[in-house]
Amino acid sequence: FPLFTVSEEVLPVATKHTLQQWSVEDSTELYGIRNWGAGYFNVSAAGEVTISPMGEGKGPQVGIPEIIRGMRERGYDMPVLLRVENILDSQISFLHESFRNAIKKLDYKGEYRGVFPIKVNQQQQVVEKIAQFGTRFHHGLEVGSKAELIAAVSQLSDTQACLICNGYKDEEFIDLGLHALRMGFNCFFVVEMPGELDLILERGEALGVKPSIGVRAKLSVKAGGHWTDSGGERSTFGLTPAQIVDVVDRLRERDMLDCFRLLHYHLGSQVPNIRDIRTAVMEGSRLYAGLVQEGAPMGYLDLGGGLAVDYDGSHTNFVSSRNYNLDEYCADGVEAIMTILDEQGVPHPHIVTESGRATVAYYSILLFNILDVSAVEFGSLPDQLPEDAPESVRNLREVLHSLTLRNLQECYNDAIYYRDEIRQLFITGRVTLRQRTLGERFYWAIMGRIAEEKTKLKHVPRDLADIDVGLADIYYGNFSVFQSLPDSWAIDQLFPVMPVHRLSEFPSQQCILSDITCDSDGRIDHFIDPQGMKSTLNLHPLRDGEEYYLGVFLVGAYQETLGDLHNLLGDTNVVSVRINDDGSYEFVREIRGDTVSDILGYVEYDPRRILEEIRTTAETAVRQGRLTPSERFSVMQAFEDGLRGYTYFER
Ligand code: PLP
Fold first, then answer.
1. How far apart are CA 488 and CA 477, in angstroms?
2. Helix 408-427 with 433-454: angle, nearest 10 deg
3. pLDDT, position 458
4. Which of 55, 265, 367, 478 has its CA 20 to 30 A from that of 175?
């Protein structure tokens, strides 16, 4: 009676192709690049990942390995954060075109005014480019602090674009916003807490500027996904309907209701389900209509962020995905607003969205090289067991010999049992180191056989599925998860990871990735998969004397901002390229990553004092005869060079 049934059609792709010729098409399917790449990324016939910054089938195309060669020639070591400027340009254009199409098709009377929330990527170059590319669409900025407001005012020149001030505001924040209004910016103060209103009005009066006021509403709707707590009645920021009505009354009392121009809500980031988005728009539109009926002039409805990125390419309502596309997002939003406002006879407002993630995620790719591999050592098994082999080792050998497709789970359980027994006997001194090693070899041989056999099963039991992780090779990547992919560590967010070359070769190794921090959390062991998620990634065996490069894609949103200095690994090199129409590319901006000296400075060390102290120690060593004066010179030179060096692994 077979425990599990075997079906040929369900063999995993990788297994099928070990038998045949592996093709570029197989790699495309395995890594799902066409599903998550949004047309920007694909694989060339030569087996290299290519970038098409205008989108699928449009405009020029450049291979990532070619860009890496260019970086290396210019002296940039890995890891490098590669930004592709024209992708940012394309994303802003697509967002506006989609809204424009929906507005035209539905005969909506208002306009679309997008803003980029600076917190999603505050790097000067990113904000500058968004302000620059966005001018033709009047794309504005959203800020949540004084520093962000000052940065925004310095980068934005289009006075028709919106400048939305969210966040908790003190007097200085408000004054800065009022000065921006005075300079002609279309600046809105969004009241996040009831107490803020009086301060805004007071400062407006003091500076003689009439503020444009908005409120952030707490909606009753709550979205699914990682960031659900940003929305809903229990969200930290925002006003309840009763508090919003109170704002209307207080403004009317002061004869300033004409300042009330905008209603804002934010459901949370990465909202995977279009139903939640639509329900929120409906609730927001009802509140908006209510405010117009109360006599507020209004004119702007700000739907916040939430437009999700399909990181795993599954097009589902899974947290790393979204069950809608950009056109559906825009059309559903515009239609829901119209349906409700037309019913109430309320004029159509300008629609604002604060899309951050969807605007910048595609724009940045983290590139790094693999430094080393550690694989499970199976070791050879003896034909004959030594005389003194303990009972548990004999039992493991027996398990290995009796293993068939029909008793996989049983053999798995037995192997674990006898391995644990040997470990216990070793701790209590009844098994020698050599005997334990022999037992572990049999154990791994059993696991290896189970891993092979289980690929023939239609349904793989959970325990057996996890064997792959135990048997996986560990590929050590030259990067820090904490610095460059903090969401992967903190909230298990999935990002597409794949080799950027050798894609015409069969990636025979099952791997997990470790970074170069010595932290056990510094690893990536969850990968995207069309069926949800997988715990190993197929990679190629390393070749002597040849670098192997991987890319982590879609990392432009939040990662740079949230990254930290774990193990004092700092900012990576950043290289921005612009791909020209003829397929050539230019390095438009290069930012060297942090040096060791920079990083030590961030954590309160003074590099000059460090050198003085090391010099004193070296001089003491000279006095004690442990170093010669000329050795002291080379020691000091090594430390001085070390301070100037890159914080990552340098070949
Ligand atoms: N607006 C506000 C108020 C936010 O808090 C956020 C981030 O959570 C955003 C916009 C950006 O959201 P997203 O990146 O999902 O577009």
1. 15
2. 160
3. 86
4. 265
DSSP 8-state secondary structure symbol assigned to residue 348? P
Q: Which of 113, 234, 96 is nearest to 164 (CA)?
A: 113
Residue bearing the CA closest to ligand 1, atom 10: 305
Separation of 268 CA from ligand 1 center, angstroms?
A: 6
Ligand 1 atom at minimum distance from 557 CA: 14
CA–CA distance, 68 with 80 (Å, rounded to integer): 9
272 lines ligand 1 (CB under 6 A): no
Q: Which two tokens stand for residue 486?
A: 């903090």
Is 576:590 a contact under the CB 8 Å cutoff? yes
CB 116, CB 134: distance < 8 Å: yes
C-alpha of residue 479 to centroid of ligand 1, in Å? 27
Q: DSSP string spanning 405-471?
A: GGGHHHHHHHHHHHHHHHHHHHHTTSS-HHHHHHHHHHHHHHHHHHHHHHTTBSS--HHHHTHHHHH
**Span 525-553, pLDDT tens digits:** 999 997 778 999 999 999 999 999 999 99
pLDDT tens for 387-402 read: 999 999 999 999 999 9
| Structure token pair of residue 44 | 């060339």
Cβ–ligand 1 distance for 166 under 6 Å, the answer yes
Residue 18 has pLDDT above 60, yes or no: no
pTM: 0.91
Give Cβ neighbours of residue 307 (< 8 Å, ≥ 6 apart).
271, 326, 329, 353, 355, 357, 358
Tokens of 184: 């002609």
d(CA 355, CA 614): 50
How many angstroms does the Cα of residue 229 sit away from the middle of ligand 1? 12
CB atoms within 10 A of CB 238: 23
- Each residue of 439-455: pLDDT tens digit? 999 999 999 999 999 98
Tell me how far apart the alpha carbons of residues 329 and 420 are, in angstroms, rounded to a whole number.
54
| DSSP bridge partners of 646 | 595
Burial (0-12, 13-18, 19+ Cβ within 10 Å), 462: exposed
Determine if the peptide bond prior to 541 is cis (ω within 30°): no
Average pLDDT over residues 175-192: 97
> Residue 264 CA: which ligand 1 atom is closest?
3
Q: How far apart are CA 50 and CA 160, in angstroms?
A: 37
The CA distance from 301 to 192, in Å, is 15
Find all residues with CB under 8 Å of 601, minimum gap 6, and list them.
607
- Ligand 1 in contact with 117 (CB < 6 A)? yes
CB distance 504 to ligand 1 below 6 Å: no
Out of 95, 116, 120, 311, mutate this one to test ligand 1's pocket (max ligand atoms within 8 Å of CB): namely: 120
Q: Which helix (H) or strand (E) holds 29?
A: helix 24-31
Phi first, then psi: what are they for 508, rounded to 5°? -80, -15
Based on DSSP, count helices (H) and strands (E) in the chain, helices before strands. Answer: 24, 23
Indicate the length of the chain as a whole number: 651
> Is the Cβ atom of 65 under 6 angstroms away from ligand 1?
no
pLDDT score for 9? 41
Q: Is 364 in the pocket of ligand 1 (CB under 6 A)?
A: no
Question: Six-digit token pair at 149?
Answer: 């407001």
Give the span between the Cα atoms of 541 and 2, in whole angstroms: 36
The beta strands (E) that lie in 270-425 are given as 300-302, 350-353, 364-374
629 Cβ contact list (under 8 Å, min separation 6): 622
